[in-house]
């Protein structure tokens, strides 16, 4: 069972770039067939998938966020990172990282981190 932990600033100003890191323990982020997701939940709304990076390093993102999203990884630290540019207050949410074994569902989750976009 993987353990995931999000970290990053809780407050970001509008138009700046939100940057979050997910640190994984209990296994390697390069383990075959594992996918590493970012998911968010705005206040009063449901879960929204943001994007992922795969065990091989390929990435994908929600079409609505793709132009502003960059997901990368540092295999030496067993971490993956989300960068969301040009943020607005609508990007305020609890951000989660989670894993998926290919073909499965989101399995292990981080505890979530609140990010507020405000001047």
Structure description:
The structure is a single chain. With about 120 residues, this protein is mostly beta strands. It contains no helices and 11 strands. The strands form 2 sheets. Strands 2, 4, 5, 6, 9, 10 and 11 form a 7-stranded mixed beta sheet that branches. It has a 4-stranded antiparallel beta sheet with strand order 1-3-8-7, with no helix packed on it. The radius of gyration is 13 Å and the shape is globular. The mean pLDDT is about 95.
The main sheet comes to: 7 strands, mixed
Structural class assignment: mainly beta
Gap between N and C termini, in Å?
Answer: 39 Å
Give the overall pLDDT as a whole number.
97
What value does the Rg take, in angstroms?
Answer: 13 Å
Number of strands: 11
The percent range for strand residues is over 45%
Shape designation: globular
Total DSSP helices: 0
Order of H and E elements: EEEEEEEEEEE
**Low-pLDDT segments, ≥5 res:** none
Helix content: under 10%
Structure keywords:
119 residues, 11 strands, globular, seven-stranded mixed β-sheet, single chain, 53% strand, mainly beta
In short:
This protein is mostly beta strands and 119 residues long. The protein has strands at residues 3-7, 11-12, 18-25, 34-41, 48-54, 59-61, 69-74, 79-84, 93-101, 106-109, 113-117. It has no helices and 11 strands.
């Amino acid at each position: 069972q993987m353990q995931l932990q999000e970290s990053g600033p809780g407050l970001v100003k509008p138009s700046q770039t939100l940057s979050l890191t997910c640190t994984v323990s209990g296994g390697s982020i390069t383990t075959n067939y594992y996918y590493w997701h970012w998911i968010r939940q705005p206040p009063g709304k449901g879960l929204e998938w943001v994007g992922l990076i795969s065990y091989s390093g390929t990435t994908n993102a929600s079409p609505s966020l793709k132009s502003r999203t960059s997901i990368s990884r540092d295999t030496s630290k067993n971490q993956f990172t989300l960068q969301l540019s040009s943020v607005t207050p609508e990007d305020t949410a609890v951000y989660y990282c989670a894993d998926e074994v290919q073909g499965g569902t989101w399995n292990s989750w981080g505890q979530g981190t609140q990010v507020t976009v405000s001047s």
